[in-house]
Design a protein that fits this description.
This protein has 235 residues and is an all-alpha fold. The chain is 78% helix and 0% strand.
Length: 235
């Protein structure tokens, strides 16, 4: 029997809103990518791919949620395993697009941190590890990423051009503050029994994850788009 979205299902509503927002963002990014300098088109394509992949997965996640009322763990982490590395490569691409020199190892170091972060979170949510241990591993990966973008090679290169420096700073804010929404959802959704705040709250977990994806994927892309536009106007 087919199930329909109810007005009282705020988590289900958030799945639908994010799925449509990702589709609209994809159209915007791919269209705007045709109107920026050629050096920025790969970056615009990547942000379009991020929202496109998310849109497809959110379609399945919202259907899974409506049908079962359970957390769509597999779909969500497949989405993140594809989209988060694409977001990480943007730190490399915007520097290259600006004509600055940086080694390809920048992306690979960020990728290592990403994989650690996601595998830790997935292992905790899927029951491979205790939720607490999975959280610690995931946080270690996130901290490694933060170190790389604040103190690593890419951070040094980004200081050499003002427009890129501002963009890099904005992206770093997203990774630090925007991404902090995910562990908040994990703590108060999954670790509540461990910290004495009651039972596991799947509704809070998924609503928070959906909010974080909405902010971080779309805003991340808008920053790239704005830098590409500004770089075009400067020439």
């Amino acid at each position: 029997m087919e199930k329909f979205l109810l007005a009282s299902d705020l988590v289900g509503v958030s799945f639908w809103l994010v799925s449509i927002a990702m589709v609209a963002s994809t159209v915007f990014f791919l269209y705007e990518g045709m109107h920026v300098k050629s050096s920025w088109r790969t970056s615009m394509l990547v942000v379009g791919l991020v929202t496109l992949i998310a849109a497809v997965h959110y379609y399945y996640m919202r259907e899974y949620w409506l049908a079962t009322g359970k957390s769509p763990i597999v779909y969500r982490y497949i989405d993140w395993l594809l989209t988060v590395p694409l977001q990480m490569i943007e730190f490399y691409l915007i520097i290259v697009a600006a004509g600055l020199a940086v080694s390809s190892s920048v992306f690979w170091r960020l990728l290592i941190g990403t994989i650690i972060m996601l595998l830790g979170g997935y292992a905790g949510e899927a029951g491979w590890l205790s939720p607490g241990l999975g959280f610690v591993i995931g946080m270690a990966g996130w901290i490694y990423i933060i170190f790389e973008i604040f103190r690593g090679e890419s951070s040094v290169a980004a200081t050499k051009k003002n427009s890129i420096k501002k963009a890099f700073g904005a992206l770093r804010i997203i990774v630090v503050f925007g991404w902090s929404i995910y562990p908040i959802g994990y703590i108060f959704g999954l670790l509540t029994p461990m910290i004495g705040l009651g039972t596991i709250n799947i509704d809070f977990l998924n609503f928070t994850y959906n909010l974080a994806d909405f902010i971080n994927k779309i805003l991340f892309g808008l920053i790239i788009w704005k830098v590409a536009i500004n770089d075009q106007e400067d020439h």
